[in-house]
Amino acid sequence: MNRPTSDAGPPGGGGVRGRAGILRNTTFGLLAQVSTAVFTAVLTLYLVRALSPADYGVFALGLTIAGICLLLADAGLSQSAARFIAERLESPRDVALLLSDALRVKLMFGGVVALALFGLAEPLADAYAQPGLTNVLRGVAIAMFATSVMTLYLNAFIASGRLKSNLRVIFLESVMEFSASITLVAVGAGVTGAAFGRAIGYGFGALVAILLARRTFGSGALRLWGPTSGRAREMLRYAGPLFVTASAYTLYSSIDVLLIGAYLDEVAVGLFAAPMRLMALLALVGLAVANAIAPRLALSESGHRDVAAFRASLRWLIVFQSALLAPVIVWAEPLVVLVLGADYRDSADVLRLLAPFMFLLGVSPLISTGVNYLGRAGSRIPIVFGALLINATIDVILIPEIGIEAGAIGTSVAYLVYVPGHMWLVRKVVDVPLRPIVRTFARCLAAAAAMAAVLLAVGTDQLSVTGWAVGIVGGTAAFCAVLLVSREVSANDVRRVAAVIRAAYAR
């Protein structure tokens, strides 16, 4: 394998101070993810109870269609701009000009797509034989346009290491969406109110992002005419493969809902979509780490990549995600009833079958986004399309036979191809040995098995408060004990982590 020799991190990136800076950014990233996740979780819980499975299925279908349209509105531009920004952080003027170029294209593409979705809302609703879908699509069309603009600046903040700005945008957007959606639904607007509440939230978030971008990058980043970066054509070329991979991945993420809606009904869509949406909560740490670490893989003007941070982060993500495996598998039914309510008891098997997907979903953002910053987005195309084909094939064969569980099987099997494929791409560019990764994974699986034994002993059906407490404390203790005995985690690891935390929050 041909790997460059520029794997060292930037000056200061390898010591305690460098890792402290990473930890601060990871913390801001995690707080941003947690804030939107908490509001999303509470809002989801409210909607699944206030709307009914059928109405929630219509809402989920509208969000899925809007997600596909968002791909056309973004056209891969946000991630492409982020990669070039990460490579040119030493030149603030270049960063502002890159953002200005990206905004011009973004407004054109986003406006056209939003108007098309708004205008075609009624024919699409007729195609699905769901009249209530019309106004939902109109609401999410507005939200989609605002999301497209907001995403450009969120990616710019990530690329430039300003995740504190991301926290502000995401928190304020989440508060507005949460308040508007609940208010509209509570006054009787139903599923239409949920859709337009989303539009209000993302519209406000886009405005906040624009104001922060002006303060951070200067007014030149918002200029719609005048000088250009000179790299617009190159940025657009790299956006091409990013758009293809994002399109395939979004279709991969949506294919289950679309096929379940086509083969079964809106109730089945709701029973599958609710645990899938909440599954994202278990990947928050992985997303935060990816936002802090992946841009450091970009080749800076001085020729450095921080590969050491990537390797260390990947190891700790494997440990963290492994701790979530046993509860998702053993306690699937009580978790579903506790979080979603008794009406969603049939979703328990879906959650259980999604366990491999959940584990990989936590490590995937670091790896796949890392490939983008390595400049190898085009190489992702066969892997993403391969995962999509696997998922769709399993769905088409199994949905008529076993129902919504087929979607969970297809998603998990396809991800077992998707994540290792991207890891292979990373290793083609930088030095990431596989043996330590396999060793960590094996030890963590043993720790997860020990936790599962404790949870099984506590029970797998209805749990009392005492049962929940004993299972959580005892299971966590068993998990940590195996990690210590197997020497996956040592006293030195604990001391190093403590030193980084002290350095990160000393000021």
Describe this structure in words.
Helix content is 80%, strand content 0%. With 507 residues, it is an all-alpha fold. Helix 10 runs antiparallel to helix 11 (307-330). The longest helix has 55 residues, at 163-217. The chain is globular and about 70 Å long. Mean pLDDT is 85; it is low at 1-18.
Taking the sheet with the most strands, its summary is: none
User: How far apart are the first and last residues' alpha carbons, in Å?
Assistant: 43 Å
Structural class: mainly alpha
Strand content: under 5%
Number of strands: 0
String of helices and strands: HHHHHHHHHHHHHHHHHHH
Give the count of helical stretches.
19
Helical residues, percent: over 70%
Report the mean per-residue pLDDT as an integer: 85
Unreliable parts: 1-18
Overall body shape? globular
Question: Outline of this structure?
Answer:
The protein has 19 helices and no strands.
